[in-house]
Amino acid sequence: MTSTAQPPPSGARAAHPEHLGHVIFIAAAAAMGGFLFGYDSAVINGAVEAIRHRYDIGSAALAQVIAIALIGCAIGAATAGRIADRIGRIRCMQISAALFIVSAVGSALPFALYDLAFWRVVGGFAIGMASVIGPAYIAEVAPAAYRGRLGSFQQAAIVIGIAISQLVNWGILNAAGGDQRGEIMGLEAWQVMLGVMVIPAVLYGLLSFAIPESPRFLISAGKDERAREVLREVEGDSVDLDARVAEIEHAMKSEHKSVFKDLLGGSFFFKPIVWIGIGLSVFQQFVGINVAFYYSSTLWQSVGVDPSESFFYSFTTSIINIVGTVIAMIFVDRIGRKPLALIGSVGMVIGLGLEAWAFSFDLVDGKLPVTQGWVALIAAHVFVLFFALSWGVVVWVFLGEMFPNKIRAAALGVAASAQWIANWAITASFPSLADWNLSLTYVIYTVFAALSIPFVLKFVTETKGKTLEEMG
After folding, report:
1. For 364, phi and psi rounded to 5 degrees?
2. Which of 105, 208, 305, 329 gives 152 a disulfide partner, CB atoms 3.0 to 4.6 angstroms apart?
3. How far is CA 232 from the centre of its chain?
4. Model confidence, pTM
């Protein structure tokens, strides 16, 4: 890291105070893709049991319908970087918004189960694109001094999207008399839940027209003058614009042809830094976080909580998720990414371990014993809190920062794809694992949370305070 006694590199200068509000607006608009990511990921929670009953399917088939969107996510994440390098970050956002709209309408009006599954894949592709473009765009536009906090906007938007979707689902369920298949506006309640996503998708599309293209893409396209204008907007008038453009051009000489083959090398197919990115992505998912958002209503109902209360607990978990994310946003640039990850891992081990213990008890009259029920509920919130204040934010920040310039775009795409594949594995396996042994399922998640601690200690390098150009 640069000594505090030396002047920072040009890329590390903070945005002039009068420009900071504009930078925040740009980052927030780009992070709207994260909001849709969270909303679409969690909205299905309100429809799981209704889909099971409407189409009369078992746990394995139900899991595939829920999880199939993640295949689309993986494809979208793998291709987004290349698409963005060809047509720009903003055009990618607009394509993603259009796909979100189409997916929401199709999911709300399915003809059959296969039809619903197809529209979920379309929505998944949009999520995958948004998961890559949002953090990459923010990392490219944000001044280095604010990049960690602005980069955390993506995760903040995700958790707000999750919370809003749970609140909307709860409201729709109550409007339908507590029945997920109750009629509202001529549709079943679960269909309305899925269709409401049209509203934020349209807003995302509109916001994409109000923010500038990434200076890096503009320079790659030969639009240096426009790049200077954007840099002036986000970094202030005191910045040496010619020096910044030269700095970016120098860095891009080794990164503009970033392709999959650039990631190959070392003893194990990929370069070590790529494996570290994949490892971060996989650990983020293998602790079982998305079980809390895809299946929480079903989970609580399975241990005796009535449907309305289960939806309410899903919402309170989402609020805790937001609180944890705010904590991470405050501290990510103060204490660093690595310490937060370690703190979160320890907290997750405790929360998941307590859940595993509580679920090991037999149900009494269809419910957990009172003590174990309260422990399970509190532990679930503890787990989500520690995930949100750590891995939920720092993994996205790490992935936007950790890779050398030459391989950044391709490596980010591979790491994000690994994240979606890991997400799919957890989502597709949970219903069957829960039917087999819910307690042991949580033991598995606890083990992965514990293993993340030595992984971070041994392999992960702190990126706090470094410019993207300093990453190589």
Report:
1. -115, 115
2. 329
3. 30
4. 0.75
Confidence check: pLDDT of 267 > 60: no
CA distance 26 to 93: 13
- Which domain range does residue 128 map to? 10-471
The one-letter code for the residue type at 39 is Y
- Of all helices (H) and strands (E), which one includes residue 246? helix 241-252
| Cα distance between residue 74 and residue 84, in whole Å | 16
The residue to which tokens 């099971």 are assigned? 52
Residue 2 lies in a domain: no
N residues, the chain: 472
Q: Domain containing 429 — which CATH number?
A: 1.20.1250.20
Mean pLDDT value of segment 441-459:
95
Per residue, the 3-state secondary structure of 413-432, as one string, reads HHHHHHHHHHHHHHHHHHHH
The per-residue pLDDT for 185 is 81
Q: Mean pLDDT in the chain?
A: 82
408 touches 248 (CB < 8 A): no
| Integer angstrom CA distances of residue 175 from 162, 178, 184, 317 | 20, 7, 8, 22
pLDDT band, very low/low/confident/very high, at 11 (cuts 50, 70, 90): very low
pLDDT confidence tier of residue 45, bands split at 50, 70 and 90: confident
Cα separations in angstroms, 54 against 113, 194, 431: 9, 15, 18
| Among 354, 355, 374, 357, residue whose Cα is nearest residue 304 | 374
* Residue 191: Cβ within 10 Å count: 24
Residue 4 lies in a domain: no
H or E stretch covering 251: helix 241-252
Domain-embedded: residue 3: no
Model confidence at 23: pLDDT above 70:
yes
Side-chain half-sphere exposure of 229, counting CA atoms within 13 A:
8
Domains contained in the chain, number: 1
Other beta carbons within 10 Å of 113: 17
- The SS3 assignment for 188 reads strand
Residue 366 has pLDDT above 80, yes or no: no
Residue linked to tokens 């907007």: 233
pLDDT tens per residue, range 333-359 = 888 889 999 999 999 999 999 999 998
Label residue 189 exposed, middle or buried (CB < 10 Å: 0-12, 13-18, 19+): buried
What is d(CA 211, CA 197) in angstroms, rounded to the nearest whole number? 22
The answer to the question of residue 409 being in a domain is yes
